[in-house]
Design brief:
alpha+beta; eight-stranded mixed β-sheet; four-stranded antiparallel β-sheet; 7 helices; about 20% strand; binds 2-oxoglutaric acid; binds fe (ii) ion
């Protein structure tokens, strides 16, 4: 098949976040913040992808995250498998993740906040185990470095989400209850892409849109592998030192009633260089029902989606990543096509 590099004159926008200081001191009407809201709103409409600079995250923490990640992945497989993901615990190590039923050319390690025990039991009868962190022994500072990074990524994501909601004229305070650093379903992933001899016939990660609200991605500076699809073509998203790459996910697409589209992206395999990346996936609480917000629905732009229970949606995705259970759950299954199908709910428990 082959995944030839596109030559593209247009590229993903770069947004300077220095204005978020004003937001923190609640000067949301400052000219800088208003400009930021406009730029981020435009980037979400045009790409759903953007870089951020001046984000305030300590470069030493970023280096430490890449360092401990590298130390983990260079261990022998037998060591990494001591913290392997299990069917009842999706946190930990994997070398056999699937995207759309195809194995990705990568290894990964997932972790999240250290949940209070009671979060794992849900009242609605759905088995949605939040997962338990599995920390490898013997890698100095692994756990504390990653938990600190998780916390900082959660804060940065909250600010970005506020700005995105403001661009839709939604008061961000009305959305805060869906997110809680200790108990929501946000998680962080370390990705390691080994050198691949047959890079043209493999992908690091196959084309997909992220399921949640937004993703903050750290890439190492080794190689350009990430690509985003726009108007039918894939565009390179090269690493830019000191930046993060932000993309919105399916739940933001639904909240915005399709004003924003969660962008399809993929990761190429590389025959010369290995690569590390660290996405943080900002996700709401399990019980959150996501549906188009009133501010994004109008006569000209009628409601496009039924309500989606995030817990059920997420569980469908996790099952799809794990094993071939048929087609993964996707938001188009919740699209409203005409007035008669609003009661339909897809059955995600196919097995
Ligand atoms: O490694 C990357 O650059 C992106 C990875 C990705 O898209 C994902 O893990 O969802
Ligand atoms: Fe992704």
């Amino acid at each position: 098949m082959g995944h030839s590099q596109p030559s593209s004159e247009i590229s993903v926008p770069i947004i300077n976040l220095s204005g978020i200081q004003d937001l923190k001191t609640s000067k949301s009407s400052s000219a800088l913040v208003q400009k930021l809201i406009k730029n981020i709103g435009n980037a979400c409409i045009q790409w759903g992808f953007f870089y951020v600079t001046e984000h305030g995250i300590d470069p030493k923490l970023i280096n430490d995250v890449l360092k401990v990640s590298n130390e983990f992945f260079k261990q022998p497989k037998i060591y990494k498998k001591t913290v392997q993901r299990q069917p009842n615990n999706y946190r930990g190590y994997t070398d056999s993740e699937l995207t759309k039923q195809k194995v990705d050319w990568k290894e990964a390690y997932d972790f999240g906040a250290e949940y209070p025990a009671e979060v794992n039991t849900l009242e609605n009868g759905i088995d949605l185990d939040a997962g338990t962190n599995q920390w490898p022994s013997d890698i100095p500072h692994f756990k504390e470095t990653l938990l600190q990074y998780f916390s900082e990524m959660h804060s940065l994501s909250s600010v970005l989400m506020d700005l995105i909601f403001m661009s839709l004229n939604v008061d961000p305070r009305t959305m805060k209850h869906h997110f809680n650093e200790a108990t929501d379903t946000s998680f962080c992933r370390l990705n390691y892409y080994p050198v691949c001899a047959d890079a043209n016939r493999n992908l690091g990660v196959g084309p997909h849109a992220d399921a949640g609200v937004l993703t903050v991605l750290l890439q190492d500076n080794n190689v350009t592998s990430l690509q985003v699809q726009k108007d039918g073509n894939f565009h390179d998203v090269p690493p830019i030192p000191g930046t993060f790459v932000i993309n919105i996910g399916d739940m933001m697409q639904v909240w915005s009633n399709g004003i924003f589209q969660a962008p399809v992206h993929r990761v190429l395999a590389n025959s010369e260089s290995e690569r590390l990346s660290v996405p943080f996936f900002f996700n709401p609480s399990y019980e959150t029902n996501v549906e188009p917000l009133n501010q994004s629905v109008s006569n000209e732009h009628p409601r496009r989606y039924r309500s989606i229970n995030w817990g059920i949606f997420r569980r469908g995705r996790i099952l799809g990543d794990y094993a071939d259970h048929g087609e993964e759950i996707q938001i188009y299954q919740f699209e409203i096509r005409n007035d008669n199908d609003t009661e339909m709910t897809p059955n995600v428990d196919q097995n």
